[in-house]
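Subject: design request, 249 residues
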């Protein structure tokens, strides 16, 4: 399926060496090795800070032409400023990520629980000001957002609603633009350590539901981007492989 982009959230995990990465793989070679297995990845590190231009260029050059990157907006925009007076950071972030060229996929605005539905107008203003040459997705973590006004806003600006498997948020299969964005996150309390070398949590029923949704959307011509966190099952490469197998029908 050419419009199906499945991958993990991040690639810099030492516990993957000897399990997913060959024994002895250096950290500088993780991404190139990753790209031998999957065709997309969600960059986790951009949430913590805008990356250096040189880093982005290295990511671009380490991967094959068909590879694609999704990335999270920095927390300085979504969590600290919550979109207010964030023009400078937004411009810098987008200019830096544009260095990926054709390899750049959607950019995700992941908001904290404290970003409330009362901030609808702030979101509307921010989305209206974003450059149209990029693709965007929005993830909210309060149920109160999930109404027609919110979905209509995303649809108006051709922004994807992030369908997430996270905590108490309902799984709403809503597509608001020409692509779908899915994040399988899990819970931090299920994994107390950073040893992400094997599947430790059975989510077969959940994976079956998500796989059916991914397959059905893709069959209808919707491009699907879906990314898995290590804390979803314990070892996100294994989860992605399971999704790949389940959607290859």
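Subject: RE: design request

Done. Sequence follows.
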């Amino acid at each position: 399926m050419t419009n199906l982009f499945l991958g993990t959230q991040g690639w810099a995990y030492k516990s993957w060496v000897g399990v997913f990465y060959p024994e002895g793989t250096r950290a500088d070679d993780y991404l190139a090795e990753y790209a031998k297995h999957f065709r997309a990845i969600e960059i986790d590190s951009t949430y913590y800070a805008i990356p250096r231009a040189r880093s982005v260029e290295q990511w671009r050059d380490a991967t094959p032409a068909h590879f694609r990157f999704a990335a999270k907006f920095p927390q300085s925009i979504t969590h600290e400023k919550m979109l207010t007076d964030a023009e400078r950071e937004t411009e810098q972030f987008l200019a830096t990520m544009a260095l990926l060229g054709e390899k750049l996929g959607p950019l995700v605005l992941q908001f904290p629980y404290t970003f409330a539905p009362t901030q609808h107008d702030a979101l509307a203003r921010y989305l209206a000001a974003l450059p149209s040459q990029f693709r965007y997705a929005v993830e909210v973590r309060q149920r109160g957002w999930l109404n027609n006004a919110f979905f209509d806003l995303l649809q108006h600006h051709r922004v994807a609603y992030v369908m997430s498997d996270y905590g108490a948020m309902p799984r709403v299969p809503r597509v608001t633009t020409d692509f779908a964005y899915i994040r399988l996150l899990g819970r931090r309390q299920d994994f107390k350590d950073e040893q992400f070398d094997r599947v430790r949590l059975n989510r077969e029923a959940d994976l079956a539901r998500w796989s059916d949704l991914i397959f059905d959307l893709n069959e209808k011509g919707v491009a699907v981007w879906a990314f898995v966190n290590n804390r979803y099952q314990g070892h996100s490469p294994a989860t992605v492989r399971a999704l790949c197998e389940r959607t290859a029908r």
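The chain has one domain: 4-247.
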